[in-house]
Amino acid sequence: ENVRGRDVFLVQPTSPPVNENLMELLIMIDACQRASAQRITAVVPYYGYARQDRKDQPRVPITAKLVANLITKAGTDRILTLDLHVDQIQGFFDIKVDHLFAAPVIIDYFRKKKLDNLTVLSPDVGGLRRARAYARALKVPLAIVDKRRPTANEAEIIHIVGEVKGRQILIIDDMVDTGGTLLAAVNILMEKGAVGVYAACTHPVLSGNAYQKIENSPLKELVVTDTIPLDLSKSTDKIKVLSVAPLLGEAIKRIHQNKSVSSLFYIK
Length: 268
Prior knowledge:
Blueprint: E1 7-11, H1 18-34, E2 39-44, H2 63-74, E3 78-82, E4 96-100, H3 103-113, E5 118-122, H4 128-138, E6 142-151, E7 154-161, E8 168-176, H5 180-191, E9 196-204, H6 210-215, E10 221-225, E11 239-242, H7 245-256
Parallel strand pairs: 1-2, 2-3, 3-4, 5-6, 5-8, 8-9, 9-10, 10-11
Antiparallel strand pairs: 6-7
Helix pairs in contact: 1-2
Enzyme class: transferase
Domain Ribose-phosphate pyrophosphokinase N-terminal: 1-75
Catalytic activity: D-ribose 5-phosphate + ATP = 5-phospho-alpha-D-ribose 1-diphosphate + AMP + H(+)
């Protein structure tokens, strides 16, 4: 297909296998750039290595910045992505960034469920802003988990701030990896009298035995999006997948037509 002088959108999540998918993206960018594409937009629904966004220990890399450099140097003009682990990653790029949120898709799903006595809960302080936006949109109370991480992928829950007894809880996060933090919160919530716990995230990393742990847990439902393909051989009926394709499609159309995408950022 001839791309000379064309507006090219390369859709490639950097999900597992992360290195392989990232390399494919870089090669496609280089190929389009050398084929004289007028503009190249990398559409990256899931931005891999996003959690390595700072040097919090000696002799560790800031891989989120390195990946941003690689994508930029390959010849990309713009990046379109969803729910970065932290908003500041946008500043790692020296090109234009459109950072969308899956919240409108997830909120619409839970509005239609019409859960009674619902409380939105953030699993940590870092996700409080996101959870507050969900609580405001759903017009329900907000709670938060106070926790600390002794080691990577392991969290110790100290206590829960907010009323959860007799209520249905919706845990909001940007991603679920091993499921350890999520399911620890679910167990604590049930012990404190919650009548049911749901969870929602944009990126279902679901590494290790996460599928099995979710299936065997008291969690009623985990709602995710299709930014990362699920392993269908392991998947469980407790996981509900929502599509963000219409959201990304609308953003791509507006970018191509040089129209504003600002309205897509807002949670209504």
